[in-house]
């Protein structure tokens, strides 16, 4: 293990103050938020992650569907350089894109806390699809309202997109609510609302097709209009929500016309169990929530190293470990495999390692050693 000083010097090598200054100069007058370009070392670290994901995909060639889930999270920080987030506390707001079926991080982008999540989400989405293994044939995409952005929607709908992947990408994105959309939802006939199977005991959830919503700004005349599915939430006992309203309305926009509304809503909601779970693991079990420096480049490298650690553990579970630990979190893997106590013994000109574990566990480790060697 490196000393704290050696680790700090290593992380500081990923930061370039010139990138910060260039991003500040590109800001529009009066704008405070900016996203600097990555330094060459940081981009190299991203290439390491892409090659790891592609190698994992090659070894799991039967997984030919890739659903990209994109989301930002808040890392609270009391560092002097941390800026206020939209929730009021100071911190940072990195964005991740996760391959849902494989539970690996495809791309990440570290951002200051004052950078809104809807600012340039296309960069992360483009990097995520660029990291795809060649074995993937079918693509989907899910995002929250921060991903309801014209450049991203244009790219998702363009089947001849530059840099790939070519072909159809089915997507579902939380729509940003506005007055026109809200009026269209309120005008839906009562008979059109269908019960949502995921309704809880205290709430009644219903979904319905929105018959008309004006086209997107990026929409071309020849393009197929987007589909909007509305969600209505009410208290079962007629109580009011905390803000005083009796009904809450949400909407999802999509290009998946053949799915029933309840199926589309349920599929879109699955994002909470993928990318948001990865946020939790990175921040609370792989140290991404405790930032090491005051420099943005060092923070970005720290997050990317945590994502690499997560992906390595996922690859370990997928390729070598027993099936019953496929859903194990890092703390359980530490308990079962990574932190086993041992005693080094020197005897008869030999050095032996006596491990405090059962023979069955040793056989698993031998199998791991046979599965994991990299290909030539």
Would you mind describing this structure in some detail?
The chain has about 375 residues and is of the alpha+beta class. It folds into two domains: about 65-290, Transposase Inhibitor Protein From Tn5, Chain A, domain 1 (Alpha-Beta Complex); about 330-370, no CATH class. The chain is about 35% helix and about 20% strand. It has helices at about 5-10, 15-25, 40-60, 120-130, 150-155, 180-185, 260-270, 275-285, 295-320, 330-340, 360-370, and strands at about 65-70, 75, 85, 90, 95-100, 105-110, 140-145, 170-175, 195, 205-210, 225-235, 245-255, 340-345, 350-355. Strand 13 (about 340-345) and strand 14 form a beta hairpin. The longest helix is centred in the C-terminal third of the chain and has 24 residues, at about 295-320.
Task: Give descriptors for this structure.
three-stranded antiparallel sheet, alpha+beta, single chain, 20% strand, 14 strands, nine-stranded mixed sheet
Indicate the topology:
Elements lengths: L3 H9 L4 H10 L13 H20 L5 E8 L2 E2 L6 E2 L5 E3 L2 E5 L4 E6 L12 H9 L7 E6 L6 H8 L11 E6 L4 H8 L7 E2 L7 E7 L17 E9 L11 E8 L6 H9 L5 H11 L10 H24 L10 H9 L3 E6 L2 E6 L3 H13 L5
Parallel strand pairs: 1-7, 7-8
Antiparallel strand pairs: 1-5, 2-4, 3-4, 5-6, 8-12, 9-10, 10-11, 11-12, 13-14
Helix pairs in contact: 3-9
